[in-house]
Structure formats: C-alpha cells, structure tokens
Amino acid sequence: MASCPFCYGTLLPTFSNGLQREKCGRCSALWFEGEALAKVMGGSATDALIARARGKHGQCKGCKEPLEYVPQCSKCGHAAPTCPHCGTAPLSVAVVHGIEVDVCPDCRGVALDKGELEHLQQEAEQERDGGLDLKPKLEPQNLQKPQCMTCKRKLKLEHAFVYDTRLYCGSCAPQGSAPYSVELARASPSLQPTVGTYLQGGGGWTAADPISYAIGWLFSSMLD
Q1: Are residues 87 and 148 in the same domain?
Q2: Can you give the pLDDT at residue 137?
Q3: How many domains is the chain partitioned into structurally?
Q4: Same domain, residue pair 156 and 182
Q5: Which domain holds residue 73?
Q6: Which residues lie below 8 Å from residue 64, measured CB to CB, with a gap of 6+?
Q7: Are residues 28 and 109 in the same domain?
Q8: Residue 145 above 60 pLDDT?
Q9: Which pLDDT score is estimated for 198?
Q10: Between 115 and 184, whose confidence is greater?
Q11: How far apart are CA 112 and CA 195, in angstroms?
Q12: What average pLDDT does the segment 86-103 reach?
C-alpha cells in the first residue's frame, strides 16, 4: 500500500459514487491519482492545475516553511510532502481561490491535508448555496463548429457528448458525460462550469458526494 504524502501513514482506497481517492488512516489526508482526476475532471482542467503548480515551491506541513528541491525541511526537520506514486519531493503548491493544493507535476496527482480539504469544502458549499444550476449545459458557441474538446476531431452532434459545457467524441468523453440533446443546446450556460457535479455511477446518474463535488468545483474554477 502507498504511504501518505504528509505523514507516511497508510493510504487506504476510498470508494463512493464520486471520485476515487485514497485516505490516510493517520492524518485523514486525501490523495487523488492523476489518471482518475483526468478521467473524471477532463484533460483541460487537470492541465490548467498542473501548469499552475509546475515550478512552484513546496511547503513544510510542520512549520509552513517554503521548500524547494529538498527531501525535508531544514528549519524543523519535518519530511517534505512526497508523491506516494513516484517519490517526487517536495510536492508543488498551487493556490486556487486561496486554497493551497499539493500537486505532483510528474504524476499529476493531487494531495489535500485535512485543513485544506475543510477549506475547499467550505468554499464549494458557498458556491452551491449561491443557487448555481447544477445541470450540465452546453454553450451555444460550441455548436457553430462542433469538435471534440480533447482530440479536436470534427463531430456530428448526434454522436457527441456534453461535459462541463463542452463537446467530446465518444472516445474522449470524460466519465459523467451526457449524450448531446436539443434540450442541452437550448439551455442557457451555467453560472459556473459543472465539472464533477454529476458523476456516472453503476446505477446511472447520481449526485456527487461532498468531496467529489468540492474537487469538481476546484477543477472547474481552473477554466474560468
């Protein structure tokens, strides 16, 4: 089993109707594999987060000292946040809406300590309580020259899928995509992108659990 990026406790797989993740049994930190994030959140959003994190310093979880190219903090001796997959240390810190997110630019994985997760959920819940329309909508301008957001292949609308107000082909459509319909085309765009708001589970469309919703909100904000 993999070790927690922050305290080296054991990461345990956590399954739900939402985004797959691993949780530390010691400090309750969460680790999201890059492949799972890209599959559910879409390549554009994950690329935006990686671009924001690349080249940034890490941060000591013990004393908050900036860390760069070191396996442990020279000030307090605390081990640097480390990728449980490839061992990169320290993880880079990307700041999104005031939330510090630890990211591995190589594996594209994301780690959140307990405090970061609580902050993220509070921000996401405020957006949800603000009355956002949580149904996937299609931006009208995407109908002018329909093409897949990922591979740029030209599309026939009857074969297209909609996710986060964008069109995808069947091969590139992220998990949770909805088949194109006239209703989606007629709907006005959401106030915010709807990445991660609804996920495709074994029993069909289900509302995302609170953590998946929060992660979806974080990634959707990367595309604003």
Answers
A1: no
A2: 53
A3: 2
A4: yes
A5: 11-131+213-221
A6: none
A7: yes
A8: yes
A9: 40
A10: 115
A11: 19
A12: 93
